[in-house]
Amino acid sequence: MTKSKFLYLLSAIVLALMVTSCRTGRIADKGVVKKVQQNEQLLPLAQPHERFTDLTARTSVTIDYNQRPISLKGRLRMRRDEVVQLTFTALGIVEVAMIEFTPQEICVIDRVNKKYVKLDYSSGVLSSIGLNFATIQALFWNRIFIPGREKAWEQLASFEVEPLGTQQCLRPSSQRMLKSYFYTDTEFRQLQQTRLRLQDYEAVWQYDMFNSLDIYTFPSVFDISISGGTQTVGMHMALSNISYLDKDWQAGTNLSRYTQVTIEEMLSILNVLK
Which residues lie closer than 8 Å to 34 by C-beta, 6 or more apart? Predict the structure, then answer.
C-alpha cells in the first residue's frame, strides 16, 4: 500500500471516528441510575488542569482495517482550546501526513501529493449530531464531555451515574443523536474508557498505561475501535516522551501550494482498497 493510499485510509478512519459510534460491548442503558450527588467528584475528569495547556508526545500508530495492519510513527501535539495535531512520518524522518483539529474545522493533509481535505463542524452531518472541537479535544485529553456543548465541567449536575462493579458509568441525562458513555474507576479518579453511539454504530476509546506528569496523570496508550454495519476498524496509538513543557511548535500549515479534494474523492480511493 502506498503512503498516499494510507493517508486516504487514515482520513476515512478519522472521519468515521467523528461521525459514527457499535452494537457490540456493554452499554449501560439499564440498571440502577442516579444523579451525581457531588459535582466536585467529577471535576478532575472534566475540567482542564490549569498548568497543562500544551502536551506533546511521540506516537507509534497501528491501524487495522479489513485485517490489513498498517504502522507509522509520528507526533501528537495539543494546545488546549486551540488545536489537536497528529503528524505521521515515513522512516521516522519525513512527514507524509498531518491531521489537525481546530475549533473551526478538521483538516487532513497529504504532504506527499500536496492534497488536503477539510471538514467544517457547521457542515450538515457534524452539526446535526452535535459534534464540535470540544468533544474531539476531550477525547484526546482524556476528559468527559457532553457532545455538542462547551465546558462540561460547568454542567456536571446533568450527569447520571450507574455502578458497574469495579467501574462507574457516567452519561449526560439528556443527549442528542450522538450519545456518550464514560467508564471510570469507582472513585471517579481515572477515565478508563469513552463510548460514542450513533444509531447502529459505536466508537470505543480505551485509555491505558497512565503516566504521572507532575500532579497530573495521562494515558500513554489509546486503543480506538469503530464498528457497525459490515466494517470494523481498530487503531492502537502508543505515546512516548510525553511532555507538557514543550511549547516550541506552531499549529497550522501553508496550504497555498496544495490542492483541496472532496471527501467523496477520498472515499472512492478507500473503496479501491477493500
Answer: 160, 161, 162
Say what angle helices 263-273 and 3-19 make with each other, to 10 degrees.
Answer: 110
Handedness of CA 242, 190, 83, 98 (dihedral sign): positive
Ranges under pLDDT 70 in the chain: 1-40, 65-66, 92, 124-125, 127, 229-231, 264, 266-274
Q: Do 110 and 165 meet the contact criterion of CB atoms below 8 Å apart?
A: no
Domains of the chain (ranges, CATH numbers): 3-273 (2.50.20.10)
Judging by DSSP bridges, how do beta strands 115-120 and 216-228 pair with one another? Answer: unpaired
Whole-number pLDDT of residue 203: 87
Contact status, residue 96 vs residue 7, Cβ threshold 8 Å:
yes
Distance between CA atoms of residues 208 and 91, nearest Å: 27
What string of H, E and C letters represents the secondary structure of the chain? CCHHHHHHHHHHHHHHHHHCCCCCCCCCCCCCCEECCCHHHCHHHHCCCCCCCEEEEEEEEEEEECCEEEEEEEEEEEECCCEEEEEEEECCCEEEEEEEECCCEEEEEECCCCEEEEEECCCHHHHHHCCCHHHHHHHHHCCCCCCCCCCHHHCHHHEEEEEECCEEEEEECCCCCCEEEEEEECCCCCEEEEEEEECCEEEEEEEEEEEEECCEEEEEEEEEEEEECCEEEEEEEEEEEEECCCCCCCCCCCCCCCEECCHHHHHHHHHHHC
